[in-house]
Amino acid sequence: MNRRTFNRFTLIVILVSSVLTGCVAIPENEHPVQKLDASKLTLTSELSYRQANWPAADWWKLYGDDQLNQLIEQGRANSPTLATAASRIRQANATLSANQAEKLPTVSANASVTRDKETATGLIPVPYAGNYINQGRATLDFSYELDWWGKQSASIRAAAGQVAASRAEAASAELMLSTAITQQYFAFQSASAQLALVNQQIEKQDQLNRLQAARLKQGLETTDILRQQDQRRANLQQQAELLTTLKQQARIALRALTASDSLPALTAKPLPDVKTGVPDQLGVELIARRPEIDAARWRVESALSQEEVAKARFYPSFTINALVGFSTIDLDKLFNSASQISSIGPSIHLPIFDSGRLKANLEGNRAQTAVLINQYNESVINALKEVSDSVNNLQGVERQQAASLRAKQAAQAQQSLVEARLKQQLADKRQVIQAELGVMTENMTLLNLKQQQIAAQINLIKALGGGYQSANTNTAGEVK
């Protein structure tokens, strides 16, 4: 075949393939699923709350606690969960690199030497018939598949989406870890503060019990009054034991969260007074700042690209193959110029009958995309619910705090009146102690509410994404 005939044949192959390509029938998607419109995500008017900026990436530092900062840094450095997430990112990057390499030409060196005994009763001519022949071959092979239908580009985009999703999932794991450590740390501080207050109540109750016992000896009190005071003392001791257990549970949880062999001694500190709020606009911004939603979004984008790969398989693939090298049956002359060989030419692969494999593969990809879109929509709905729940909890706690503060002020006013009456000898020490215990009871309620407020604040920060911001991916599959 001369060059003109070769070129003509190549052109015919391309034209026939083009005609057949126009006959390719890709089935329609009979079950399309749409993503939710994130721009409509807003809180209801009943849940309006003070406005604030989005949380910072190091949001826990707003509490100004060095112990907490150290615990979180330790957890981030030692966490097996974060190490696993980092490994998944490396795995996704390796897949992306492999897909990017598929778009580039391949060059390989190949060499072989064989020794064959030819048949003496076949078509092999003399002098080769019945004798051994040494065959040597050394070539440099080149192959390049043309990405006419965007299959390789779509594959790269799909892999890049998985990289971005893996990074978002790692950020989600880090947010889960930091919020868990912060919750347990303030649970420890709250239990410590409440335990200190209960011990003060026990001390005052012991004073009251001694006064009641003295009055009983004098015949001024009945036994049942003393038994009631003993019961109150036992209840306070029960609270002290419970709070001691809660402190230890918090330390155990912190040790696990920080993956530490031992946890350093933690100094008891007052619970911080920090105000949080909600950004003016949620909508699309909330989607971009929630790492698990961003991961779900990237999974959807990756699946859509995989659908494009599945569609491209319906069309013919074109590959250019070439080689240069040497081939001979006389090994001594393998690298002589007379032994040189070369070839170049296109090849085409067009699926015609595959028993429905391509359609089944496309339908499977579409079903997977639908699953991922539904999961994305669910995560969007849950995100708004979590923000709403956190705001509702904060509003409720703040209303309770206002009521408890009024109750404390009333208890303090009652204590002042009793102390004034004591100076005028119109009251005794027992009434003063009872008034002091009343103030301590209100302080305990306020401590509980403060711990609930901090827990709700942390949940709100988590619901707002904890300072995460979505990455961008360009058409070449590079994640920024």
Automatic annotation (TrEMBL):
<keyword id="KW-0564">Palmitate</keyword>
<keyword id="KW-0449">Lipoprotein</keyword>
<protein>
    <submittedName>
        <fullName>Efflux transporter outer membrane subunit</fullName>
    </submittedName>
</protein>
<dbReference type="InterPro" id="IPR010131">
    <property type="entry name" value="MdtP/NodT-like"/>
</dbReference>
<keyword id="KW-0812">Transmembrane</keyword>
<keyword id="KW-0175">Coiled coil</keyword>
<comment type="similarity">
    <text>Belongs to the outer membrane factor (OMF) (TC 1.B.17) family.</text>
</comment>
<keyword id="KW-1134">Transmembrane beta strand</keyword>
<keyword id="KW-0732">Signal</keyword>
<dbReference type="InterPro" id="IPR003423">
    <property type="entry name" value="OMP_efflux"/>
</dbReference>
<feature type="coiled-coil region">
    <location>
        <begin position="226"/>
        <end position="253"/>
    </location>
</feature>
<feature type="signal peptide">
    <location>
        <begin position="1"/>
        <end position="25"/>
    </location>
</feature>
<keyword id="KW-0472">Membrane</keyword>
<dbReference type="Pfam" id="PF02321">
    <property type="entry name" value="OEP"/>
</dbReference>
